[in-house]
Amino acid sequence: MIRVDSVNLSFSHEGEVNQVLQGISFAVKAEGSCAIIGPSGCGKTSLLFLLAGLLQPDAGTITITGSPRTGTILQHYGLFPWKTVVENIGLGLQLKGEAKDRIGARVEGLLAEMGLTGFGRHYPAQLSGGMQQRVAMARALAIEPQILFMDEPLSSLDALSRERLQNLILQVWRDKRITTILVTHSIEEAVYLGRQIIVLSQRPGRILQIVDNPGAGSREYRQTEQFFHNCNQLRRILKEEDHGPEA
Amino acid sequence: MGRKRDILIAALILVGLWQVSALLLDSMALPEPWIVLVDTASKIADGSLLDDLAISTFRALSGIILALAAAVPLGLAVGAEDSLRRRLSPFIYLLYPIPHVVLLPLIIILFGIGNFSKIFLIALIVFFQILVTTRDAARNIHRNYFHSMQTLGATRLQIYRHVILPASLPKILTAMRISIGTAVAILFFVESFATTTGLGYIIMDSWGRADYVALYTGISCMALLGFALYLLLDRLERRICAWTRTD
Ligand SMILES: Nc1ncnc2c1ncn2[C@@H]1O[C@H](COP(=O)(O)OP(=O)(O)OP(=O)(O)O)[C@@H](O)[C@H]1O
Ligand SMILES: [Mg+2]
């Protein structure tokens, strides 16, 4: 269970205070899936960093019960370009001091699972964007996390690999029962993958609405009436935020 | 292998230019290349040049290695640790632009006129070049690489090993490329007096005796030494920075 309570965050730069997040409160239950959506620069990444413990809030609290293992996929510069695919994926286990052959076996399994067999010795720059994201996913999964934080993992991909990876995320969430928090700027992606969708306002980011989306979690959901309805609802909320209420 | 062929062609052109100049100038002061080549080959074959070649190589290499051993760890730490950088950067700022070669008298007073003084001066000059580059490289690593390590639960030492060092290596090797030229130049300087060994001595001695063939043999060997160090660095770079060549 993740509980965020009245969180504020600001950055100060040369005496100028830049309020980024304001009064953020929500909760995600264990094995839940939560999508965070909002306009560019509204503080989505900052919110994810707070959840992942990479930033500390100015005010408010973030509680994650049971100190679970977490995996994180960052928006930019996530993989280490100087490490091969195998080294990237195995790094978390290596840092924990796991035995070499155990790491090898685990990495081999993940390569197969993510459709990366045969690319273990490549460097990230030699892979397509979609494959890089699958490596990032494999690295996050290597330590068998109970919570997975993802920051726009699919934003740089073409439509086809995007859809394939969305299905992969769905599968990971369902099969491994991992709590997933996904930052995205795609409305369809949020509705497809988040049972709970947090809509942020423009900076400073406040929660405009938390949309319940219990239908998410199956591949068929994409074709349902409810899916389109929820997409439209999200679109309306975001548009109003952009232009003010329609006249 | 087009690159190797191009280098060979360039070498032939340079020797050709030398040949043409020698013929045009028709002076004792510029012997034809084949005469120098024969002289070099015979002196290497009979062993009379080998000692000088060996001692010069030893001095240059030890100087560079000593400089690396000190400058890389210090540069990485100063670049990566804010507090250390704040404290040490003013000193580096003051000490870096000094032409360190003028410290030669002081070094000789402290360490005598033996090998150590020569090596020390080479090391001192190369040290600052590598220190500054390493520091700047370590300082400009993207924040997200550190975040990734943090999410994987890395210790500070692990961050040095897996991020700070490998991320800085390409720039360190580029700095070394420049340093090799400097090291050989300083080598010539320190071998040009108070010694009777080394290629620098050969050059000064044959100059004094107006033995121009021996002079050019010395010069050519000095050039070959620089070139050999360069090739060595190329090898090293290909091995430890394979990730920068993504083609
Ligand atoms: N480390 C930092 N120091 C100062 N300001 C920052 C820092 N990180 C983010 N900001 C600022 O905070 C605001 C929110 O940034 P954030 O990256 O969280 O937004 P975002 O919603 O993820 O944007 P995007 O959609 O472009 O990914 C931006 O104005 C940004 O400039
Ligand atoms: Mg972002």
UniProtKB/TrEMBL annotation, chain A:
Keywords: ATP-binding, Nucleotide-binding, Transport
Transmembrane domains' residue ranges: none
Domain ABC transporter intervals: 2-227
Domain of life: Bacteria
Gene Ontology molecular functions: ATP binding; ATP hydrolysis activity
Pfam family, one: ABC_tran
InterPro entries: AAA+_ATPase, ABC_transporter-like_ATP-bd, ABC_transporter-like_CS, ABC_transporter_ATP-bind, P-loop_NTPase
Protein name: NitT/TauT family transport system ATP-binding protein
Organism: Desulfoprunum benzoelyticum
UniProtKB/TrEMBL annotation, chain B:
Classification via CDD domains: TM_PBP2
Residues passing through the membrane, by range: 58-79, 91-113, 119-138, 178-203, 215-233
Coiled coil location: none
Pfam families in UniProt: BPD_transp_1
Localization of this protein: Cell membrane
Keyword entries, A-Z: Cell membrane, Membrane, Transmembrane, Transmembrane helix, Transport
Domain of life: Bacteria
One cellular component term from this protein's GO annotations in UniProt: plasma membrane
Domain ABC transmembrane type-1: start-end pairs: 53-237
Membrane topology label: Multi-pass membrane protein
Family matches, as InterPro entries: MetI-like, MetI-like_sf
GO BP field: transmembrane transport
PROSITE patterns linked: ABC_TM1
Family in the record: Belongs to the binding-protein-dependent transport system permease family.
PANTHER family attached to this UniProt entry: ALIPHATIC SULFONATES TRANSPORT PERMEASE PROTEIN SSUC-RELATED, ALKANE SULFONATE ABC TRANSPORTER-RELATED, MEMBRANE SUBUNIT
Name under which the protein is recorded: NitT/TauT family transport system permease protein
Organism: Desulfoprunum benzoelyticum
